[in-house]
Amino acid sequence: MKSKLLAVVLLISVSWVAQSEMTLDSVLADYIEAKGGMEVIKGTKTIKTTGKMTMGAMEAPFTFIFKSPNKIYTTFELQGMKGIQAFDGEKGWQVMPFMGKTEPVAMSEDELKQIKEQADLEGPLVDHESKGIQLELIGNTEIEGTPVIEIKATKPSGDVVTVFLDKEYMIEVMTRTKMNMMGQEVEAETYFSDYKEVGESGYPMAHAMSVKMNGSVVQNLTFEDVALNVDVDDSLFQMPVETEQQEAAE
Asked: In degrees to the nearest 10, what's the CA dihedral of 167, 171, 174, 179?
């Protein structure tokens, strides 16, 4: 009986020590290692993905192109029409024929805010200090039965992104974003799954994502092809010059 009691006490002690030794720095170090190391992260200059997005009964093929630092170009086809959303690091623009915008137009303030979030190729856990992001280690919890580590990231804008890392593999299981849009607080959750190693470096990337807004699924994305460090000219992300000149004249 005494030996069993001692074993239980030792087990609790080891568990408590493990909890107490978990710090934000140690978690971030494990996360960077799981991503292949800082050299791999910084060496990933572009990512091009193609796949399909489903929204209810509708299905739309898409292409996402990211370029460091903070550039993104997305296209998707819906109802026989092609939409474009892009951010060149400073300006955001879009072509949305489904909304009557058949020519490139500048994004609204809320739309610009949202695409800026998407354009950060590295995410809030990498170089957070230089980005003005404050991180707080919340601790251990669970997401749909999976043990995860919760980290709160507060951006300079005041928007909060909570990142949940798989406790075993130290990669994202889910992110929860709270932001103000049109005077209202919106909460979005993005779930990541079907991780595969990509490129020569074996960079781990999710090949499936599910997006919830205020608790309801609004998008499911399946990535069919992912390529790293493809050549992408900066002009792809820039708003067409003719459109900018027309806006200036108006």
From this structure: 120
Q: In 3-state terms, what secondary structure has residue 185?
A: strand
Say if residue 185's pLDDT is above 90.
no
* pLDDT value at 128 more than 60: yes
The pLDDT of residue 242 is 58
Instruction: Give residues with Cβ within 8 angstroms of 165, minimum separation 6.
Output: 27, 31, 148, 149, 151, 171, 172, 173
Asked if residues 50 and 73 have their Cβ atoms less than 8 Å apart, the reply is no
Count the neighbouring beta carbons within 10 Å of the beta carbon of residue 225: 11
| Three-state DSSP class for residue 30 | helix
Domains of the chain, with CATH numbers?
Answer: 23-249 (2.50.20.10)
Confidence at residue 245, expressed as pLDDT on a 0 to 100 scale: 45
Instruction: In whole angstroms, give the CA distance from residue 95 to residue 112.
Output: 14
Q: In angstroms, rounded to a whole number, what is the distance separating the alpha carbons of residues 26 and 38?
A: 14
Does the pLDDT of residue 223 top 60, yes or no? yes
CA 207 to chain centre: 13
Is 96 buried (19+), middle (13-18) or exposed (0-12) by CB count in 10 A? Answer: middle
CA distances from 118 to 17, 69, 90, 136, 204 (A): 37, 12, 13, 21, 18
Helix (H) or strand (E) holding 246: helix 241-249
Q: Tokens representing 63?
A: 């292409």
**Tokens 């997006």 belong to which residue?**
211
Side-chain-side CA neighbours of 143 within 13 Å: the count stands at: 20
Q: How far apart are the C-alpha atoms of 140 and 22, rounded to whole Å?
A: 10
pLDDT reading at 231 higher than 50: yes
Q: Residue type at 129?
A: E
